[in-house]
Amino acid sequence: MAIHVFFDNSNIWGGAQGVRNLTEPGVPWPALRIYYKNLFTLIERGRPAQTKVLAGSVPPSCEALWEYARDHGYDTDLLRRVERDDGSIGEQGVDEVLHMKIANAILDHPAPQTLVVATGDGKLSEFGTGFPTQIERAVKHGWEAELWSWGMTLKENRYRKLETDSGGKFKIKLLDVHYRSLTFVKGGQYYERDAAGNKSYFAVPERIVEKL
């Protein structure tokens, strides 16, 4: 059975940072890295993939990641962050691109297939689309589905109900147990600012990724 993988990079990155904040509070966020080789290996599990999409935002530039993903067969959909009405900078359209491409895959590939989504995002977009909705559609079309998510970013109620109602066709898989196999710490000198804006430097030791 072929798999179709859709990867919400911003949500997976944010979830990893949340776990870091709880388990390695002395590590500043810029020092944490995701080891994508193990992450892709974990969610693909050696299964043949007909569709592989990774979506994210720029800036910041993660060219090494985008190139690595492309080298491993992923289409990379990168959308530029925009200024909102309140002056903040945020994503625009990343989730919607993934929602659309999931729908296209469901339409283009008759069951049996397996939808694999890496995100914890359960909200509806301003256009009325959402990852739970697309997962529900996949199951209704005879597909199986998997959700890979960090526990703290998982929208529990929506996804757990889908899992219960799917009759075993949809399964939630948490990344947390693999945290040290999916991340590493880039050692070096980092700094934090006090209330006056003064920098205070400190050393962060390296942590290498553990075997998956």
Describe the protein's architecture and organization.
The strands form 4 sheets. The protein has a 6-stranded parallel β-sheet, sandwiched between helices. The chain is built from 7 helices and 12 strands. Residues 87-91 have low confidence and may be disordered. The chain is 34% helix and 28% strand. The protein has helices at 9-23, 36-44, 63-71, 94-108, 131-140, 156-165, 179-182, and strands at residues 3-8, 32-34, 49-58, 75-80, 82-83, 89-90, 114-118, 144-149, 170-174, 183-185, 188-193, 199-204. Helix 4 packs parallel to helix 5 (131-140). With 212 residues, it is α/β, with parallel strands linked by helices. Helix 5 (131-140) links the parallel strand 7 and strand 8. It has one domain (3-185): 5'-nuclease (Rossmann fold), CATH 3.40.50.
Indicate the topology.
Layout lengths: L2 E6 H15 L8 E3 L1 H9 L4 E10 L4 H9 L3 E6 L1 E2 L5 E2 L3 H15 L5 E5 L12 H10 L3 E6 L6 H10 L4 E5 L4 H4 E3 L2 E6 L5 E6 L8
